[in-house]
Each structure stands twice: as structure tokens, then as C-alpha cells.
Amino acid sequence: MAEAADFPGMTPSPARRWLRRTGALLAGAPLLAGLLQLPVSSAHAAEPTVVKEASDTGAVTVAVDSLSPSVPTEGDTLTVSGTVTNKGKQTVTNAHVDLRLGSALTTRSAIDSTATRSDDISSSTGSVVGDKYVAEFTKLTPGVSEQFSISVPVDELDLGDGGVYPLGVALSGETSAKPWERVLGVQRTFLPWQPDEAAARTRTTVLWPLISDVHMTAETASNEQQTPVFLNDDLAAEISPGGRLDQLLSLGKSLDVTWVIDPALLASVDAMTERYDIVDGDTTTAGEHQAVAGQWLAELQRAVQGKQVVALPYADPDLASLAHSGTSVTGSLNQLKAATDVAASTVETVLHVTPSTDFAWPVEGAVDPSIVKVATSAGADKVIARSDSLTEKGGLSYTPSAARPIGGGTTAVVADSRLSEAFQGDLTKASTSTRAVQEFLAQSLSLNLQTAKQRSIVVAPQRMPTAGQAQAMAEAVSALQGGTWSQTQQLTATAAAKPDPGATTKVPSRSAYPSSLAKRELPRSAFVDIATTQDRLDNFKVVLTDASRVVTPFGRAINREMSTSWRGRTTAASSFRQGVQTYLTTLTEQVKLIQKSELKLSGRSATIPVTVQNNLVQGVDHLVLRLTSTNPTRLEIDGEAYAEQGIEVSGGHSTTVKFTTSAKANGQAAVIAQLYTEDGRAYGAPVTFDVKVTEFTATVMLVIGGGFLLLVLAGFRMYTQRKRAAAREAEDNATAETDPASETAESTQDSGNGPDAESDARSGADDPVQPSDGTPDTAAESTGPSGTGERVDR
């Protein structure tokens, strides 16, 4: 029965409960005595675990706003400044900030790993750098920030050989809930240390891009200067003091970099040095930043003297979009060729330097075979790629040189992705900027320490760095160029350097192209729009006496339609393309045919006037006006179904030309007037009007025949009357010889008042006269349309 009491679901017996309790007390007594006799130090031995658990909370944020110098040398004093902020709900007491130095990082991936956990307080923070190099705070109130600054002689850091050392800046303190000292916040950064000059310095090429968005339209004023029209005045803000492009120029001129410039930017700023207009909807205002534009260009001209300048194709066309979506549209590659051809001349004209046009730069250095093919189709034989696209698969233990032969006489200049992506994101805060600078320098030094072999490396940052990113870039490049492990090299020299035999040369397939980049490409419809605009431009320019006034602004606008800057801005890009097309259509419609109303033809033949109006400021020629009868069996034009005449019209004028027509039968026939270029392409809209033959009938023929008969009879009557008069005159003369008085009477009767003379006068008045005999041709330069139901000359 006692055993049954221990089964599940049954209550133990009182005797068994007493035995169990007694056994537990006897077994626990020695343990309790041992615990009571434990020394105090044993209790503190468990503290690391407690501190680690407490440190996971991260109640305080630490921001390192500056680290100076970025690359210390022997004898320097390292100063670390920043801000600590209590993000928790409890006041931190006995707080202090100290510096902690870790062991040298031996690989570039180790730097990546440290950077990703820069504020992780649960990871090792390294050894404290001396007790006296601290910044103390009595307390840190929740939500309050405090600044700190710690200076320590570099010799006190006890750095070893050259390398990259993780430097932790940690805040420790107590809270009322956990009244013991522990790490409450940390921020890790990097301390590059290379006291002696490297055995083989890395040859580093830094690209310094001057690229902007699209600002100019295709429109120009009709004055002699062709005043350019801008979409907005944003470019003025960029080049004004403190603006993005002003910062890039001011910072870049003190660095040894390779300038990578979009010629369209130069052309836009150059246009702003004189009169320019800004369009805002239906309102156009005059630009006012001529002085700013002139100053920026003058400073750029000085900055690039003696430096290498690489000119991108005009407007920086999107090579990947062209390769993936544009090549199926006829003429797209011709646009890239045109953009490349004009690049060098634009840079030479504005900056007075000869640029290199041998380089193509796809977006973010991402390449595939189609991109390489398009990039080199316009004459470039070097493609700036990036190492995260052309990845290494040969198992090299170091980063190889940038130059790689990829076949077909093309060289891929592979930029280092870690160095190139170091300055992305929001770098307006001092802490994020400092972190980017130190990580960049750490990666560069680590790359140099990989091998004693000298290599050439390229840094290709984002195309349009912000002002904050540019400042961080300049600080890092300046420190790098003043360091002991790197030396500057121009891009052309890097491209010509001997390739590393172990480096990969295989271009990744199309499927490997990043989907994140593909989603932002220009669609095929964009290139269809571009081809349509070019076709209309080609048809328009052949009729102009000064085609350059149209070809140049529209040609450059078409280049801008392919700009890389449209990525991710689908609506804005489409609006720009439609704006170019609309403006071109407006211009072409300034040369047109004047509408005509129905014409009435009142005889077998007549002339039909057609007026061509030119509202452009320049003349047009090489046009042909064709007049076609849709019913040549009823109405012929110059004896055929149609007739043509060449057209020339001065700017701001109109001209009227006439076509001879002949009617074969009564009724109505439609006539089509159409302008053509000399190569046979229709120009503008046709004008269709009706010609109605309303009087070409049997009755008309009878009236005409009767009139003719009357004329014949009148003539015969005149002849007989004159014959009779002559006979009478002869008889009268004979009588006069015998009767002078009779002669006098006859003379009086024939003085011109008699019936015969009156008949002669009437006969002269009835001579037939054609209505068109005394009427000149339709006056030239006539601009008015024909009247309703107009009657044409016959």
C-alpha cells in the first residue's frame, strides 16, 4: 500500500513526506555551510557573466566624431573626440569613457566583420589604454548627450608592427538597478599603423567625378544668340559656394586625382555664363547666375591643368540600359557614337585641355558581355568595372592589379569594390564620416600588406557624391596620399600596367547582372522615343537653310535622353523625352500649307493657287509641293494626275504657287496638296480640298456657240455697212463735183453722229474679253486662306 502511494495521480503518505523532507535537510546542510564560508572574492568571480548580460542592453550610444591624425606616426598624439548619449531610462553614475585597443586585423574580411559589429557591446572591446586616458562624467541623465575628448601619445598605445588595429571607444558606468561597473556603450573604429615606408607602395588611382542631372532642354530662343532654356535653376545651386559641385571642385583641386567629367555638365555651365532662361510650366524667367557659372568654370580650368581628365560620352549615357533594351531599336548605337564624338571637342573648348575618351564607365562597374560590346562600340577600348562584378575565382590570396585583358583588344580596369563603396549613405554626421574615412584607410593598408608585390588599384566612387560624401572622400584621399603605403597613379597608367596572370578575365554572364540595377534601367520604350525624335529631326533639318540652329540643340537633347541620371526616375525621364518631341513638332509645324476651301472651276482650264507659310526665323528650301488630283479623268493638273513645284520661303514669310488644271467633265474632284522633302519624304500634314466644275454643260456650250454666232453676224453686218457707206461716199463725191451745196450737206451727215458711227462704237464695246487677261498671278507672300467657294482664274 505504501508503494502505491508514489504512483502518479496519488497523494504520498504522511510517513513518506516526512522521510523526504528530513533527507533533503541533511543533504543540504553541508552545502549551506560551504556557501556561508565562501570568501568574498569567489562571489566576484561570477561578475564577468553578470556584466556581459548587463552589457547586452546597450543603454548608451557612443559616437566618434573625429580621430586625429587619421594615420598616426611615431611621436604623434592621438586625439579621439565624440559624444555619448544616454538612451536608457535610468541615470548612469560613475560614468567614464576610455580607449581600448585590440589585436591587429590580418585580413580585409576581418575589417568587414569588425565594421558590421562596431557598436556591439557583447563582443570583445580590447585592452584598456591606461587608466589616465579617460573622460569622466558624474552622471549621464536619460536623453542627455555629453561630449568627450581623449588625447594619448601614440607611444603609449604600444603598437607593434604595421597593421590595422581596432580601436574601441567605450563608456562604462553604473545604474541604480545594477549598481556595479560595466560597459554600457561602445563604438569601434580603425587605427591604420604603418610607421615605416612600405616595401612596395600600392599605386592608387582615385576617380573624381564631375557629373550632374539633366538641366538643359532642347528649346532655344529665336534670337541670334539662341538663348538656351533650362528645366530649372538647380545647377546654379550646385555650383554656388557650398553647393555639391562647388564642394567637389574645391576639394578635388588639392588632391592628385583623375577627373572624370561629363561634357554635358560643362556645356550647361558654359551656357549659363551668358543669357539663359528658366521654364516653369507656362512661365519663362531669365537666369541670374552668370557670374557664378563663370567663376566655377574658371576655377575648374585651373584645377585640371596638369591633371588627367577623362571625358565620358556626352550626357553620360546609360550603357547597361542601351545594351539590354536599346540595341533592338534601330539607330540607338548611333546615338552613343554621336555622344562620344562630341565629348572631346566640348571638353577642349571649355577647359582647354585634351581629355582621354578611351574609357567607358557602366553603372556601378557592373558588366556582362552585352555591356562590354556596347561600351566599346563607339571607340572606347577600356571599361571601368568593379571587383564585385568581375569577381576573383582563381584562389588568389591577395587583391590583383586592376587591369585585366578580357578579349577583343578590350581592357577591363577593375576598381576595388570595398574602397569604391566606402563613402555611400548619409555622411553628413561627423561620426559616420569619420567611420567611413577610417574604414577606407584600413582597407587600403590591409590591401597593401597582403603581399610584397606592387599592384595598381582603382577607387571608383559613386557618380554623383553628395557634399558630405565628397568631404569624407577628400579627407580619406588626402590622408592616403600623405601616408607611407600608397602612391598616386593616373588612370591611363593603371590601365596600361602589366596584368596579374592569376587574375580573372572572364566577364560574367547576363544572368549574373544584379537585378537591383536592372530594375532601374531605361525601358525599351525610351529608345523607341529617341528613335522617333531622331527620325523627325532628320526629316526637318534637310529643309532648313541653317540646320545647325536645330541639329545641335536637339542632338544634344537626344543624348541627354539616354543619361544615366534618369535611373530610378521613370516619370521624369518620360516627361523630358515627350517635351523634346513636342517642341520639335512645334517647330516643324511652323512650315505648313494654308488650308483651302472648295474651289469652283468655270471653264476647261484654270490655275489653282496654293500657299506655303514659314513662321520660322530662318528660310526653308529643298521642299517640293505636290498637287494631286484624286480623279484625273475629271480633273488633270498640268495634263497629269499630279504636278510638283520646288519651294523656297524666307523666314517669317509665305509664298503662293499656281498649278494649271484642265477639266474633262463636270462634277467634283478632290485635290491633295502635300509638301515633300527632296528625297521624297512627306513633310507636314496634307491639305485636301474639292474642285467643283459647275458650268461645263451643254447649255454653256450653246450659250458660247450662240455668242460666237452673234459675233460673226455682227462682224458681217459691220462689213456690209462699211461697204455700203463706201459706195455712198463715192456717189456723194461724184454728186459734189456738180452740186457743192449737196456736198456740204453730206459732210454734215457723216461727221460722226450718224447711226453708222454709233454702230461702230457698239461693235467695239462688244469685243470678247477673258476675265484673266488683265489679272496678275496671285501675289507672292500672301498669307491669307482662300475664301469660301472661291473661283479660280481660268
Automatic annotation (TrEMBL):
Residues 729-794 are annotated as: Disordered. InterPro entries: DUF6049 (IPR046112), Ig-like_fold (IPR013783), TonB_box_CS (IPR010916). It comes from Streptomyces bobili. Residues 772-785 have a biased composition (Polar residues). The chain crosses the membrane at residues 696-716. Keywords: Membrane, Transmembrane, Transmembrane helix. The keyword Lyase does not apply. This is DUF6049 family protein. It holds the Pfam family DUF6049.
